[in-house]
Amino acid sequence: MGERNMTSGISQITKQVYSGLKQKGYTGRIVSIRHLDDLKEEIERRRNQGVFDEALYQEYLAGFEFGIPEHLPDAKSLVITSVPQPQQRVNFNFKGRSYHLTVPPTYSHKTDEIVENILSDILKPKGFNLYPAAVPEKLLAVRSGLAKYGKNNITYIEGMGSFYRLKAFLSDLPAIEDNWFELRLLEQCNTCNACVKKCPTGAIVPRRFLVQAEKCLTFHTERPNEFPDWIEPSWHNCLIGCMYCQLACPANKRFFRWFEGEESFTEKETKLILKGTSPNQLPQATVEKLKRLYLLYQLDVIPRNLDVLIEQGSS
Ligand code: SF4
Ligand code: SF4
User: Fold this and answer.
1) 139 lines ligand 1 (CB under 6 A)
2) Nearest in space to 189 (alpha carbons), one of 233, 142, 231, 154
3) CB-based contact 99:314 (threshold 8 Å)
4) Domain boundaries, the chain
5) In whole angstroms, what is the distance from residue 165 CA to residue 88 CA?
6) b/e map of 142-180 (b: 16 or more CB within 10 Å)?
7) What is the sign of the dihedral through the CA atoms of 127, 131, 133 and 139?
C-alpha cells in the first residue's frame, strides 16, 4: 500500500474509533506513543519536586508502566477514553436504622469491558491490536485535550462534568493527529472558589493543579490504615472517597442527582461487613451485591469507613 493510501486508511479507522465511541455517548483521544515518555517525565518531575507524599506515590503512582510492553512491541499510540458514569447509592440497615450512602463515580469498572470491546471490534478486523495501559489516565486525558483540570485536581470533560470514568489503552494503530496540550484549567475556575471553600480538609491549593492528596479524604478512605487524628469523623460523606468538591462544582450542576445501581444490605449483611468478614465467608448474595458495586476488592477499607459513617449517624 502506498504511503498516501496507508495514511488515508488509518485516518478512516481513526474516524471509526471516534464515531464508535460517540455512538455510545463516550469520547476519547488517540496520541502518539512517544508521549509515554512525556507522562513518565512529568510524574517523575513532580515526584522530584516533592509534590507527592511518598506514601501516596507508592500507593497510586509507582504501579504505572511507561515502557513498551513485550506483547505489543510495535505500539504506536495511546488511546484514552471516557465514559459517563453516575454515583451509586448503597443502603445499609443497622440496629433498626437505614443508612443511605454514596459511592462516587469512577469506582465502578462496569464499562471498561464495553469500551474495550468497541475499540477492539473496530481495530482487530483491520489488523490492529489493543491492550489496557497502566498510565496516569487523568494526566493523559488533560494532555491529549480530552479533559481539563478543575482547581480540585478532578478532571472535567465537556458534557460529562467530572461524572465519568477514564480508561487508557495501548495500540499499534498509528496516531494520525498528535495533539499534546499544556495543562489546562476549566474556564469556570477563574471566577469560582466553591470547591476550595467546601473541602473540609483544606486539600485544595488554589493556583495549582494538584491537591495535597495526602490531605484528601479520598486517599485516606482508600487505604487500610487507621484514619489520622486530624480527620474529623463528621467530614466523611461517602462509603469510599469524597464528593464534597465535585458536588460543590457548578460544572457538575446537571449531574448532582445522577445515581444508578442502588444496592441494599440487610441487618445481617451489614453486621457481617462491619465485622470485616472475608469474601469467602460472606453469603453469595452479599458477594454478588458487592461485585455489582465493584466494592468486593475494597473490603479492606469498607468496614472501617462504614463504621465511622454509622457512628456519625449519616443518612
Ligand atoms: S475529594 Fe474531598 S477532601 Fe479531597 S479535595 Fe475534594 S472535597 Fe477535599
Ligand atoms: S468548584 Fe469552581 S473552582 Fe472548583 S473545580 Fe469547580 S469550577 Fe473550578
Assistant:
1) no
2) 154
3) yes
4) 3-311
5) 13
6) bbbebbbbbbbbbbbbeebbbbbbbbbbbbbbbbbeeee
7) positive
Quick check: helix, strand or coil at residue 294?
coil
> What's the number of CA atoms in the CB half-sphere (13 Å) around residue 288?
3
> What is the C-alpha separation between 138 and 112, in angstroms, rounded?
16
Separation of 151 CA from ligand 2 center, angstroms?
Answer: 6
Quickly list DSSP for 192-235. --HHHHH-TT----TT-SS--GGG-HHHHHHS-SPPPTTS-GGG
Ligand 1 contacts CB of residue 157 (under 6 A): no
Which mutation among 215, 232, 242 tests ligand 1's pocket best, with the greatest number of atoms within 8 A of CB? 242
Q: What is the dihedral of CA 134, 66, 215, 208, to 10 degrees?
A: -120
Q: Is 304 helix (H, G, I), strand (E, B) or coil?
A: helix
Task: Point out which residues pair with 265 in neighbouring strands.
Answer: 92
* pLDDT tens for each residue of 31-78: 999 999 999 999 888 878 776 666 666 766 678 999 999 999 999 999
Residue 237 in contact with residue 306, Cβ under 8 Å? no
227 in Cβ contact with 93 (< 8 Å): no
| Whether the CB of 152 sits within 6 Å of ligand 1 | yes
Query: Is the whole-model pTM more than 0.90?
Result: yes
Cα torsion angle, 49, 51, 53, 56, sign: negative
